[in-house]
Automatic annotation (TrEMBL):
Gene3D superfamilies, alphabetized: 3.30.70.2450, FAD/NAD(P)-binding domain
One MF annotation (Gene Ontology) recorded for this entry: oxidoreductase activity, acting on paired donors, with incorporation or reduction of molecular oxygen, NAD(P)H as one donor, and incorporation of one atom of oxygen
Organism expressing this protein natively: Actinomadura bangladeshensis
InterPro entries assigned: FAD-bd, FAD/NAD-bd_sf, RIFMO-like
Name of the protein: FAD-dependent oxidoreductase
Keywords on record: FAD, Flavoprotein
Cofactors required: FAD
FAD-binding domain residues: 10-342
Amino acid sequence: MAPTGRPTGNVLIVGAGPTGLLLAGDLAAAGIGCTVLERRAAETSTLTRAFAVHARTLEMLDARGLADELIATGRRVGALRLLGSTALDLSRLPGRFPFVLVTPQYETERVLKERALAAGAEIVHGAEVVALRQDAAGVDVDVRTAGGETGTRRASYVVGADGVRSTVRRELGLPFPGRAAVRSVMLADVRLDEVPEGVLSVGAVGDAFAFIAPFGDGWYRVIAWNRRHQAADSEPVDMAELRDVVRRALGTDHGMRDPRWTSRFHSDERQVPRYRTGRVFLAGDAAHVHSPAGGQGMNTGMQDAANLGWKLAAELWGWAPSWLLDSYHEERHPVGRQVLRGSGALLRFALAEPRWLR
């Protein structure tokens, strides 16, 4: 395609999580018309899912002028005690960011959203994608608002960054092969009477596993797994059970109290066979989902976005070679596969802790 004086089309992104927001910011900064559709009506949430931002992601954010602002919202972790006496010294990592940043996902989303809006992206909340159809020239997306009204938007390209239950992936008819990695994991956001010695606390003893991370505002995220009690995701979390599991795994429950949110979940290991189908792309959890071990999910999705954004911009500005958009799948699919295998191995290692590590 020969270069033109203006972009030849636009991009519609489904999903306003970190993956979709980073992509929107990159496209808008490159002068590409970009709209993000988000099913959730609320623009912000005090609840959080991911909270670890890795060094590679911080480098990527630094290139966009965002790293220092995000770092100011969280806490730096320079060393990780993995299990027992096994430790990882992150201060030896090369580069500007020899640490893991612990910050709530909503802070990451806030920083990315502000950048995207400032660059000219449109973000629409309460907009649920219900169907899509593509032809040789573009993609028609049927959207239902929170009020029940329906309409159709057309875009040159669509990116599904709409999570593990991706509507975009479903509309493409793509399988999502894989398996459940672990079931009945308990989550809770709580206050602690006793501040843990380290920034992150993790332990596994016999049939109990627990992990505690601070949000920096007095709240802590607790993740715990009880091999003795494998309940359905719909079963409420019992705080007595949670305290018992944490005490067994860590030796103390740190005076856990005042839960503001609890949930159970199961973690899958799945990956879509291809990240591109015609004019539609998948990124983040819509393309790959893995165990929470290592905190890789959000980071991998944001790196998907960084890879795809400039390539879509190049195509729409008219200077991309014919193979460039296909290289997104070729480059990112192997990375997703490696993360899936690595995080899965780490999870199984943690939940089946051998006695010699204790």
